[in-house]
Amino acid sequence: MRNDRQSLHQIRQVDMTVNSNDIEAIVREVLNSMDGKGSPAAAANTGRTAYDIPSTAHCAFLTDLKHFEIKEFPMPEVGDDEILVKVEGTGICGTDGAEYKFDPFKYIPINLGHEGTGTVVKIGKNVKKDSAGKPLGLGDKVVTCMIFHDDPDITMFDLNKQNIGEADVYGLIPDDDRHLTGWFSDYILIRGGSTVFNVSDMDLDSRILIEPCAVLIHAVERAKSTGILRFNSRVVVQGCGPIGLICVAVLRTMGITNIVTVDGNDERLNFSHEMGATGHVNFMNHKGIENLAAAVKSELGGYLADFAFQCTGSPAGHSNIYKFIRNGGGLCELGFFINGGDATINPHFDICSKEITTVGSWVYTLRDYATTFEFLKAAKRDGVPMDRLITHKFALKDINEAFETNIAQKGLKIAVLSN
Protein backbone atom coordinates (compact mmCIF):
# COMPACT_ATOMS: atom_id res chain seq x y z
CA MET A 1 0.00 0.00 0.00
CA ARG A 2 2.91 2.36 0.60
CA ASN A 3 3.92 2.16 -3.05
CA ASP A 4 0.31 2.79 -4.14
CA ARG A 5 0.10 5.95 -1.96
CA GLN A 6 3.41 7.19 -3.36
CA SER A 7 2.17 6.58 -6.90
CA LEU A 8 -1.10 8.42 -6.22
CA HIS A 9 0.84 11.30 -4.69
CA GLN A 10 3.03 11.52 -7.82
CA ILE A 11 -0.01 11.75 -10.08
CA ARG A 12 -1.71 14.39 -7.90
CA GLN A 13 1.35 16.59 -8.17
CA VAL A 14 1.06 16.68 -11.96
CA ASP A 15 -0.08 19.98 -13.51
CA MET A 16 -3.63 19.20 -14.71
CA THR A 17 -3.00 21.20 -17.88
CA VAL A 18 -0.61 18.59 -19.36
CA ASN A 19 -1.67 16.89 -22.56
CA SER A 20 -2.54 13.20 -23.00
CA ASN A 21 0.96 12.24 -24.16
CA ASP A 22 2.43 13.68 -20.96
CA ILE A 23 -0.08 11.75 -18.84
CA GLU A 24 0.75 8.49 -20.64
CA ALA A 25 4.46 9.03 -20.03
CA ILE A 26 3.86 9.74 -16.34
CA VAL A 27 1.73 6.62 -15.87
CA ARG A 28 4.39 4.52 -17.60
CA GLU A 29 7.04 5.97 -15.29
CA VAL A 30 4.92 5.18 -12.22
CA LEU A 31 4.40 1.57 -13.35
CA ASN A 32 8.08 1.11 -14.07
CA SER A 33 8.94 2.39 -10.59
CA MET A 34 7.03 -0.43 -8.89
CA ASP A 35 9.22 -3.16 -7.39
CA GLY A 36 6.65 -5.97 -7.47
CA LYS A 37 5.51 -5.37 -3.89
CA GLY A 38 2.98 -2.77 -4.93
CA SER A 39 -0.20 -3.43 -6.82
CA PRO A 40 0.40 -4.72 -10.36
CA ALA A 41 -3.25 -4.29 -11.35
CA ALA A 42 -2.60 -1.22 -13.51
CA ALA A 43 -0.72 -3.32 -16.06
CA ALA A 44 -3.00 -4.67 -18.78
CA ASN A 45 -3.34 -8.42 -19.21
CA THR A 46 -1.47 -8.36 -22.52
CA GLY A 47 1.88 -9.90 -21.65
CA ARG A 48 3.17 -6.69 -20.05
CA THR A 49 4.24 -6.72 -16.45
CA ALA A 50 4.73 -4.40 -13.51
CA TYR A 51 7.27 -6.81 -11.99
CA ASP A 52 11.02 -6.55 -12.29
CA ILE A 53 11.83 -9.85 -14.00
CA PRO A 54 15.51 -10.84 -14.14
CA SER A 55 17.19 -11.87 -17.37
CA THR A 56 17.92 -15.38 -16.06
CA ALA A 57 16.20 -18.02 -13.96
CA HIS A 58 17.56 -20.75 -11.70
CA CYS A 59 16.41 -24.38 -11.64
CA ALA A 60 17.44 -27.25 -9.39
CA PHE A 61 18.31 -30.12 -11.72
CA LEU A 62 18.71 -33.67 -10.47
CA THR A 63 21.81 -34.53 -12.50
CA ASP A 64 22.74 -37.78 -10.76
CA LEU A 65 21.43 -39.98 -7.99
CA LYS A 66 21.22 -37.96 -4.78
CA HIS A 67 22.68 -34.86 -6.41
CA PHE A 68 21.02 -31.60 -7.46
CA GLU A 69 22.78 -28.79 -9.30
CA ILE A 70 21.44 -25.24 -9.52
CA LYS A 71 21.48 -24.31 -13.21
CA GLU A 72 20.99 -20.85 -14.68
CA PHE A 73 19.08 -20.29 -17.93
CA PRO A 74 17.99 -17.24 -19.96
CA MET A 75 14.50 -16.12 -19.02
CA PRO A 76 12.22 -17.37 -21.81
CA GLU A 77 9.74 -15.24 -23.69
CA VAL A 78 6.16 -15.66 -22.55
CA GLY A 79 3.79 -16.68 -25.33
CA ASP A 80 0.21 -15.52 -25.76
CA ASP A 81 -1.15 -18.64 -24.00
CA GLU A 82 1.54 -18.88 -21.32
CA ILE A 83 2.14 -17.68 -17.78
CA LEU A 84 5.40 -16.88 -16.01
CA VAL A 85 5.22 -17.62 -12.28
CA LYS A 86 7.68 -16.55 -9.61
CA VAL A 87 7.90 -19.60 -7.38
CA GLU A 88 7.32 -19.15 -3.65
CA GLY A 89 7.52 -22.70 -2.32
CA THR A 90 7.33 -26.37 -3.25
CA GLY A 91 6.80 -29.50 -1.16
CA ILE A 92 8.94 -32.61 -1.51
CA CYS A 93 6.78 -35.57 -2.49
CA GLY A 94 7.53 -39.23 -1.89
CA THR A 95 7.80 -39.59 -5.65
CA ASP A 96 10.49 -36.89 -5.67
CA GLY A 97 12.33 -38.80 -2.95
CA ALA A 98 12.18 -42.04 -4.94
CA GLU A 99 13.49 -40.30 -8.04
CA TYR A 100 16.28 -38.72 -5.95
CA LYS A 101 17.36 -42.10 -4.58
CA PHE A 102 16.69 -44.55 -7.41
CA ASP A 103 15.58 -42.76 -10.63
CA PRO A 104 12.83 -45.38 -11.16
CA PHE A 105 11.33 -43.34 -14.02
CA LYS A 106 14.70 -42.85 -15.78
CA TYR A 107 14.15 -39.09 -15.80
CA ILE A 108 17.66 -37.89 -14.88
CA PRO A 109 18.56 -35.13 -15.66
CA ILE A 110 15.33 -33.46 -14.64
CA ASN A 111 13.95 -30.32 -12.98
CA LEU A 112 11.74 -31.91 -10.31
CA GLY A 113 8.99 -30.39 -8.15
CA HIS A 114 5.21 -30.74 -8.61
CA GLU A 115 3.81 -29.54 -5.26
CA GLY A 116 4.55 -25.89 -6.01
CA THR A 117 2.89 -22.49 -5.89
CA GLY A 118 3.83 -18.94 -6.74
CA THR A 119 2.85 -15.51 -8.09
CA VAL A 120 1.89 -14.66 -11.66
CA VAL A 121 4.43 -12.07 -12.83
CA LYS A 122 3.83 -12.14 -16.59
CA ILE A 123 0.83 -13.41 -18.49
CA GLY A 124 0.02 -13.95 -22.16
CA LYS A 125 -2.68 -11.83 -23.76
CA ASN A 126 -4.96 -14.83 -24.35
CA VAL A 127 -5.00 -15.87 -20.68
CA LYS A 128 -7.94 -14.25 -18.90
CA LYS A 129 -9.22 -16.99 -16.57
CA ASP A 130 -7.99 -20.04 -14.71
CA SER A 131 -9.13 -23.59 -15.45
CA ALA A 132 -12.24 -23.17 -13.28
CA GLY A 133 -13.31 -19.94 -14.96
CA LYS A 134 -12.02 -17.65 -12.21
CA PRO A 135 -10.37 -14.40 -13.38
CA LEU A 136 -6.59 -14.67 -13.51
CA GLY A 137 -4.10 -11.83 -13.73
CA LEU A 138 -0.84 -10.40 -12.54
CA GLY A 139 -0.17 -10.83 -8.84
CA ASP A 140 -2.48 -13.81 -8.40
CA LYS A 141 -1.27 -16.90 -6.53
CA VAL A 142 -1.54 -20.12 -8.52
CA VAL A 143 -1.02 -23.87 -8.50
CA THR A 144 -0.94 -26.22 -11.47
CA CYS A 145 -2.51 -29.61 -11.92
CA MET A 146 -2.32 -31.49 -15.25
CA ILE A 147 -1.05 -30.75 -18.74
CA PHE A 148 -3.55 -32.18 -21.21
CA HIS A 149 -2.04 -30.96 -24.48
CA ASP A 150 -5.51 -29.99 -25.74
CA ASP A 151 -6.94 -33.47 -25.23
CA PRO A 152 -10.49 -33.13 -26.66
CA ASP A 153 -11.83 -35.69 -24.17
CA ILE A 154 -11.03 -33.47 -21.19
CA THR A 155 -13.13 -30.46 -20.25
CA MET A 156 -13.75 -28.66 -16.98
CA PHE A 157 -17.38 -29.85 -17.15
CA ASP A 158 -16.47 -33.54 -17.19
CA LEU A 159 -13.52 -33.67 -14.87
CA ASN A 160 -13.63 -37.34 -13.89
CA LYS A 161 -12.74 -38.67 -17.35
CA GLN A 162 -9.33 -39.82 -16.23
CA ASN A 163 -6.83 -39.42 -13.45
CA ILE A 164 -3.46 -37.82 -13.78
CA GLY A 165 -1.88 -41.08 -14.92
CA GLU A 166 -2.93 -40.16 -18.47
CA ALA A 167 -1.53 -36.63 -18.41
CA ASP A 168 1.75 -34.81 -17.78
CA VAL A 169 2.66 -32.91 -14.61
CA TYR A 170 5.16 -30.11 -14.14
CA GLY A 171 8.21 -31.47 -12.34
CA LEU A 172 7.81 -34.92 -13.94
CA ILE A 173 8.36 -34.03 -17.60
CA PRO A 174 11.52 -33.96 -19.72
CA ASP A 175 13.56 -30.79 -20.04
CA ASP A 176 13.15 -28.72 -23.22
CA ASP A 177 14.92 -25.80 -24.88
CA ARG A 178 13.13 -23.23 -22.69
CA HIS A 179 13.59 -25.13 -19.40
CA LEU A 180 11.64 -24.00 -16.27
CA THR A 181 9.59 -27.22 -16.30
CA GLY A 182 9.60 -28.00 -12.56
CA TRP A 183 8.66 -26.12 -9.40
CA PHE A 184 12.11 -26.55 -7.78
CA SER A 185 13.10 -23.28 -9.45
CA ASP A 186 12.77 -19.58 -8.83
CA TYR A 187 10.53 -19.22 -11.91
CA ILE A 188 8.35 -21.68 -13.83
CA LEU A 189 6.83 -21.22 -17.29
CA ILE A 190 3.25 -22.52 -17.49
CA ARG A 191 2.63 -23.60 -21.07
CA GLY A 192 -0.57 -23.59 -23.07
CA GLY A 193 -2.76 -26.63 -22.48
CA SER A 194 -2.00 -26.65 -18.75
CA THR A 195 -4.49 -26.53 -15.93
CA VAL A 196 -3.89 -23.69 -13.51
CA PHE A 197 -5.93 -22.47 -10.54
CA ASN A 198 -6.12 -19.07 -8.89
CA VAL A 199 -5.73 -19.73 -5.15
CA SER A 200 -4.99 -16.20 -4.00
CA ASP A 201 -7.37 -16.64 -1.05
CA MET A 202 -5.09 -19.25 0.56
CA ASP A 203 -1.89 -18.83 2.58
CA LEU A 204 1.45 -20.22 1.38
CA ASP A 205 1.51 -23.34 3.56
CA SER A 206 -2.01 -24.29 2.47
CA ARG A 207 -1.06 -23.83 -1.18
CA ILE A 208 2.00 -26.06 -0.80
CA LEU A 209 -0.27 -28.78 0.64
CA ILE A 210 -2.86 -28.67 -2.16
CA GLU A 211 -1.29 -31.40 -4.32
CA PRO A 212 -0.80 -34.03 -1.59
CA CYS A 213 -4.24 -33.22 -0.17
CA ALA A 214 -5.76 -33.84 -3.61
CA VAL A 215 -4.30 -37.35 -3.47
CA LEU A 216 -6.36 -38.03 -0.34
CA ILE A 217 -9.49 -36.34 -1.59
CA HIS A 218 -9.31 -38.72 -4.56
CA ALA A 219 -8.68 -41.73 -2.32
CA VAL A 220 -11.66 -40.93 -0.10
CA GLU A 221 -13.87 -40.42 -3.16
CA ARG A 222 -12.73 -43.84 -4.41
CA ALA A 223 -13.54 -45.30 -0.99
CA LYS A 224 -17.01 -43.73 -0.99
CA SER A 225 -17.71 -45.38 -4.35
CA THR A 226 -17.86 -48.75 -2.55
CA GLY A 227 -20.91 -47.68 -0.56
CA ILE A 228 -19.23 -48.93 2.63
CA LEU A 229 -17.57 -45.78 4.01
CA ARG A 230 -20.15 -43.88 6.08
CA PHE A 231 -20.32 -41.31 8.88
CA ASN A 232 -20.39 -43.98 11.59
CA SER A 233 -17.76 -46.23 10.01
CA ARG A 234 -14.88 -47.60 12.06
CA VAL A 235 -11.79 -46.77 10.03
CA VAL A 236 -8.14 -47.84 10.11
CA VAL A 237 -5.46 -45.66 8.49
CA GLN A 238 -2.15 -47.50 8.14
CA GLY A 239 0.89 -45.25 7.78
CA CYS A 240 1.35 -41.87 9.48
CA GLY A 241 3.57 -40.08 7.01
CA PRO A 242 2.13 -36.94 5.39
CA ILE A 243 -0.25 -38.98 3.21
CA GLY A 244 -1.68 -40.99 6.12
CA LEU A 245 -1.99 -37.93 8.35
CA ILE A 246 -3.79 -36.00 5.64
CA CYS A 247 -6.06 -39.03 5.18
CA VAL A 248 -7.04 -38.77 8.85
CA ALA A 249 -7.73 -35.04 8.44
CA VAL A 250 -9.92 -35.57 5.37
CA LEU A 251 -11.93 -38.29 7.11
CA ARG A 252 -12.35 -36.21 10.26
CA THR A 253 -13.39 -33.14 8.32
CA MET A 254 -16.08 -35.11 6.49
CA GLY A 255 -17.52 -36.25 9.83
CA ILE A 256 -15.97 -39.67 10.52
CA THR A 257 -15.08 -39.82 14.22
CA ASN A 258 -13.83 -43.37 14.84
CA ILE A 259 -10.34 -43.54 13.30
CA VAL A 260 -7.44 -45.71 14.45
CA THR A 261 -3.95 -45.16 13.04
CA VAL A 262 -1.22 -47.79 12.69
CA ASP A 263 2.47 -46.89 12.42
CA GLY A 264 5.84 -47.67 14.01
CA ASN A 265 6.64 -44.12 15.13
CA ASP A 266 5.15 -42.88 18.41
CA GLU A 267 5.64 -39.21 17.57
CA ARG A 268 3.68 -39.54 14.33
CA LEU A 269 1.02 -41.64 16.00
CA ASN A 270 0.55 -39.02 18.71
CA PHE A 271 0.28 -36.29 16.09
CA SER A 272 -2.40 -38.31 14.29
CA HIS A 273 -4.71 -37.56 17.23
CA GLU A 274 -4.34 -33.85 16.59
CA MET A 275 -5.36 -34.52 12.98
CA GLY A 276 -8.48 -36.36 14.15
CA ALA A 277 -7.57 -39.95 15.10
CA THR A 278 -9.29 -41.42 18.16
CA GLY A 279 -6.90 -44.31 18.75
CA HIS A 280 -3.58 -45.71 17.55
CA VAL A 281 -1.44 -48.84 17.50
CA ASN A 282 2.34 -48.98 17.26
CA PHE A 283 3.09 -52.15 15.30
CA MET A 284 6.56 -52.28 16.86
CA ASN A 285 4.91 -53.29 20.15
CA HIS A 286 3.10 -56.33 18.76
CA LYS A 287 4.82 -59.45 17.47
CA GLY A 288 2.98 -61.30 14.74
CA ILE A 289 0.01 -60.29 12.62
CA GLU A 290 -2.55 -61.96 14.92
CA ASN A 291 -1.40 -59.91 17.90
CA LEU A 292 -1.31 -56.76 15.80
CA ALA A 293 -4.83 -57.37 14.49
CA ALA A 294 -6.04 -57.97 18.03
CA ALA A 295 -4.56 -54.64 19.13
CA VAL A 296 -6.30 -52.82 16.29
CA LYS A 297 -9.57 -54.54 17.16
CA SER A 298 -9.19 -53.49 20.78
CA GLU A 299 -8.64 -49.83 19.79
CA LEU A 300 -11.84 -50.02 17.74
CA GLY A 301 -13.84 -51.09 20.78
CA GLY A 302 -13.72 -54.80 20.11
CA TYR A 303 -14.61 -54.58 16.42
CA LEU A 304 -12.64 -54.91 13.21
CA ALA A 305 -12.66 -51.97 10.82
CA ASP A 306 -15.50 -51.26 8.42
CA PHE A 307 -12.98 -49.64 6.12
CA ALA A 308 -9.19 -49.32 5.89
CA PHE A 309 -6.79 -47.03 4.06
CA GLN A 310 -3.36 -48.48 3.29
CA CYS A 311 -1.04 -45.46 2.98
CA THR A 312 2.42 -47.03 3.11
CA GLY A 313 4.57 -48.23 0.24
CA SER A 314 5.32 -51.43 2.14
CA PRO A 315 4.28 -54.80 0.66
CA ALA A 316 4.15 -56.19 4.22
CA GLY A 317 1.79 -53.37 5.11
CA HIS A 318 -0.53 -54.37 2.27
CA SER A 319 -0.41 -58.02 3.33
CA ASN A 320 -1.34 -57.10 6.90
CA ILE A 321 -4.16 -54.64 6.23
CA TYR A 322 -6.76 -57.33 5.36
CA LYS A 323 -6.52 -58.72 8.88
CA PHE A 324 -7.84 -55.42 10.29
CA ILE A 325 -11.04 -55.43 8.21
CA ARG A 326 -14.38 -57.06 9.09
CA ASN A 327 -16.37 -59.37 6.84
CA GLY A 328 -18.02 -57.26 4.16
CA GLY A 329 -15.66 -54.35 4.80
CA GLY A 330 -13.71 -52.20 2.38
CA LEU A 331 -10.13 -51.28 1.56
CA CYS A 332 -8.52 -48.42 -0.35
CA GLU A 333 -4.91 -49.08 -1.35
CA LEU A 334 -3.11 -45.84 -2.16
CA GLY A 335 0.42 -46.33 -0.86
CA PHE A 336 2.22 -47.51 -3.99
CA PHE A 337 3.10 -44.53 -6.15
CA ILE A 338 6.00 -46.52 -7.58
CA ASN A 339 6.71 -50.23 -7.85
CA GLY A 340 7.42 -51.21 -4.25
CA GLY A 341 7.51 -54.95 -4.84
CA ASP A 342 5.06 -57.83 -4.54
CA ALA A 343 2.76 -58.42 -1.57
CA THR A 344 1.66 -61.83 -0.33
CA ILE A 345 -1.99 -62.41 0.53
CA ASN A 346 -4.28 -65.40 0.76
CA PRO A 347 -7.14 -64.68 -1.67
CA HIS A 348 -9.51 -67.07 0.10
CA PHE A 349 -9.05 -65.80 3.66
CA ASP A 350 -8.21 -62.17 2.85
CA ILE A 351 -10.71 -61.37 0.09
CA CYS A 352 -13.20 -64.06 -0.93
CA SER A 353 -14.47 -65.51 2.34
CA LYS A 354 -14.62 -62.02 3.88
CA GLU A 355 -16.12 -60.46 0.73
CA ILE A 356 -13.78 -57.49 0.98
CA THR A 357 -14.43 -54.68 -1.51
CA THR A 358 -11.11 -53.21 -2.65
CA VAL A 359 -10.39 -50.09 -4.65
CA GLY A 360 -7.07 -48.71 -5.80
CA SER A 361 -6.30 -45.01 -5.83
CA TRP A 362 -3.52 -43.30 -7.74
CA VAL A 363 -3.08 -39.52 -7.50
CA TYR A 364 -6.22 -37.54 -8.52
CA THR A 365 -8.55 -36.12 -11.15
CA LEU A 366 -8.97 -32.48 -12.01
CA ARG A 367 -12.24 -32.31 -10.11
CA ASP A 368 -10.45 -33.42 -6.94
CA TYR A 369 -8.41 -30.19 -7.02
CA ALA A 370 -11.54 -28.05 -6.73
CA THR A 371 -12.73 -30.20 -3.82
CA THR A 372 -9.32 -29.92 -2.18
CA PHE A 373 -9.55 -26.13 -1.97
CA GLU A 374 -12.76 -26.47 0.01
CA PHE A 375 -11.31 -29.20 2.22
CA LEU A 376 -8.33 -27.05 3.22
CA LYS A 377 -10.57 -24.15 4.08
CA ALA A 378 -12.87 -26.42 6.12
CA ALA A 379 -9.92 -28.02 7.93
CA LYS A 380 -8.58 -24.61 8.87
CA ARG A 381 -12.02 -23.53 10.05
CA ASP A 382 -12.33 -26.70 12.15
CA GLY A 383 -8.94 -26.19 13.78
CA VAL A 384 -7.15 -29.11 12.11
CA PRO A 385 -3.42 -28.16 12.32
CA MET A 386 -2.62 -28.69 8.64
CA ASP A 387 0.15 -26.09 8.79
CA ARG A 388 2.08 -28.25 11.26
CA LEU A 389 2.54 -30.91 8.59
CA ILE A 390 5.26 -28.70 7.10
CA THR A 391 8.04 -29.27 9.60
CA HIS A 392 11.09 -28.03 7.66
CA LYS A 393 11.70 -25.27 5.12
CA PHE A 394 14.90 -24.93 3.07
CA ALA A 395 16.18 -22.39 0.56
CA LEU A 396 16.45 -23.53 -3.07
CA LYS A 397 20.25 -23.47 -2.82
CA ASP A 398 20.03 -26.01 0.01
CA ILE A 399 17.85 -28.47 -1.87
CA ASN A 400 20.27 -31.39 -1.44
CA GLU A 401 20.07 -30.96 2.33
CA ALA A 402 16.28 -30.73 2.08
CA PHE A 403 16.09 -34.06 0.26
CA GLU A 404 18.46 -35.76 2.69
CA THR A 405 16.25 -34.54 5.54
CA ASN A 406 13.25 -35.95 3.73
CA ILE A 407 14.63 -39.43 3.06
CA ALA A 408 15.96 -39.63 6.64
CA GLN A 409 12.35 -39.06 7.81
CA LYS A 410 13.48 -36.34 10.19
CA GLY A 411 10.23 -34.46 9.68
CA LEU A 412 6.89 -34.74 7.90
CA LYS A 413 6.42 -32.49 4.89
CA ILE A 414 9.65 -30.79 3.78
CA ALA A 415 9.31 -27.61 1.71
CA VAL A 416 11.78 -25.76 -0.51
CA LEU A 417 11.29 -21.98 -0.62
CA SER A 418 12.41 -20.00 -3.62
CA ASN A 419 12.08 -16.44 -2.28
Concise structural overview:
The chain has 419 residues and is an alpha/beta fold.
How would you describe what is shown here?
This protein has 419 residues and is of the alpha/beta class. The chain has three domains: 2-33; 56-201 and 388-417, Alpha-Beta Complex (Quinone Oxidoreductase, Chain A, domain 1), CATH 3.90.180.10; 213-360, Rossmann fold, CATH 3.40.50. Helices cover 30% and strands 23% of the residues. The protein contains twelve helices and 16 strands. The protein has helices at 2-12, 20-33, 94-102, 204-208, 210-224, 242-253, 266-275, 289-299, 315-321, 347-352, 366-381, 399-407; strands at 56-64, 67-74, 83-91, 110-111, 115-123, 141-147, 187-190, 194-198, 234-238, 258-263, 279-282, 305-310, 325-333, 357-360, 390-395, 413-417. The strands form three sheets. Strands 3, 5, 6, 7, 8, 15 and 16 form a seven-stranded mixed sheet that branches. Helix 9 links the parallel strand 12 (305-310) and strand 13 (325-333). Helix 6 (242-253) packs parallel to helix 7 (266-275). The radius of gyration is 24 Å and the shape is elongated.
